[in-house]
Design goal:
Blueprint: H1 3-51, H2 71-74, E1 80-84, E2 90-94, E3 118-123, E4 129-138, E5 144-152, H3 154-204, H4 220-269, H5 274-306, E6 312-315, H6 316-333, E7 337-341, E8 347-350, H7 352-369, E9 375-383, E10 386-392, H8 425-435, E11 439-442, E12 452-458
Parallel strand pairs: 7-9
Antiparallel strand pairs: 1-2, 1-5, 3-4, 4-5, 6-8, 9-10, 10-12, 11-12
Helix pairs in contact: 1-3, 3-4, 4-5, 5-8, 6-7, 7-8
Amino acid sequence: MTLTRRLWLLGALVPALAMLVALGLAGQLFRYDLERSLDRALLAQAAVESVSLFDGPGQKVHLHMAVSPLLDQVRPFAPHGYLYGPDGTLVVRYPQGPAGVTGLEERLVPGAPGGEPQLVTQVAPDGERWREVRVNVRSPHGERYALRLSASLGQVDGSVVTYYRMAFSLSAMLGLALLVLQTTQARTLARRLAAITRHLGQLREGDFSRAPVEDQERDEIGQLRAVLAEATERLRGARETQERLIAGAAHELRTPLTLMRTSMDLALRRERTPEELRASMLDSRREVDRLAVLAGNLLDLAVAGRGAWDRKRGDLSQLVMQAVEGARAEAERRGMLIRLDAPGPAEASFDAGGLRQAVDNLLSNALKFSPEGGEIHVRLMREGGRYQVRVADLGPGIPRAEREAVFEPFHRVLDGVHTSGTGLGLAIVREVAEQHGGRAYVAPEPRDSGTEMVIEVPVALHAAA
């Protein structure tokens, strides 16, 4: 079933039918209430007439409604009154003329006085309905009389018919308005959902270049569109990152492979002495080692991207201390000093292996770019709900414009100075930090020289951003 038909059914047809049923039930309750009101009016009139039938001159029987000064005003809706004598003959009638609904019933034998009034509904030969109350009364001389008051139900039927006419007319207008409204709404929703469907089709085909069609509404579909736009942007960024990673990896792989092929071609071109062959093999071995390091770093980056972490509560200060101790031997070999500030335990949830690798990468970069005899300062501190691991060196520093780019794979900022490495260390650092729900960045505080790199991880365990 299409969205338009579903909205027609659930938003217009079903409410209209439910409203018709409710109006029908309300009409029946309205009729019942009007008839009960008429019964109460007849009983009140019968009560008045029954106690004053014999208060005329000489205790002559009479109906007060026939001599009421308001007779002309109440004639259209006043009940008809009939009084029958002890032998059942009609004694008094109001108004004069045919006896209303029971015109053929000229006799009504009184029963025993004091009984319950009788309320009955009669149907005249012309189909008009009448409501009657019958009361047995006793005269001061002990004679029995029967009082019958009869009121037409035509006004009740007319009021109910008018109610149904107006109610059903209004319900028809409301149903039509609902149909128009739901049609418009269904077309709008269908158009918005169709735009999202088309965009999902583009994503399925691998086209991340365009964002979903703009949607100014702030309902659930608008929120879905916003989430889809964000996902599209992330997919586009991921693809661009993947393409840069592949291009960078291809470039990094091409250089050692070219050198190896050149060395082998030279070795095969003519006879070589054992010393020359050994030198060629050593060159190839160095390039193989370089390829192995690059492959290992690429694998580490892929593992970090998958986020297959075993996060557990632990002391972050112990991890940082172990990383510093592991780097001290290389620092001493280069005549450098590593100073650690990690006051007290630092309980947090983290993956020990992944975070240790990230801290090791920061220390390795600091050792690589610091001058001999320099100092590396490692600090562990808490800022709000996060721990910060800060590694500061006295190296050449990173230009402000390059502080984000250095975390991209294979990006190097060396000012023309050659250095070893694959350019993946900081990319792994950022990936590890983000997978822990934190971040990695270059400290923005101005420094006379050197660089301070920062890893932030949350104290509490939660999903990565």
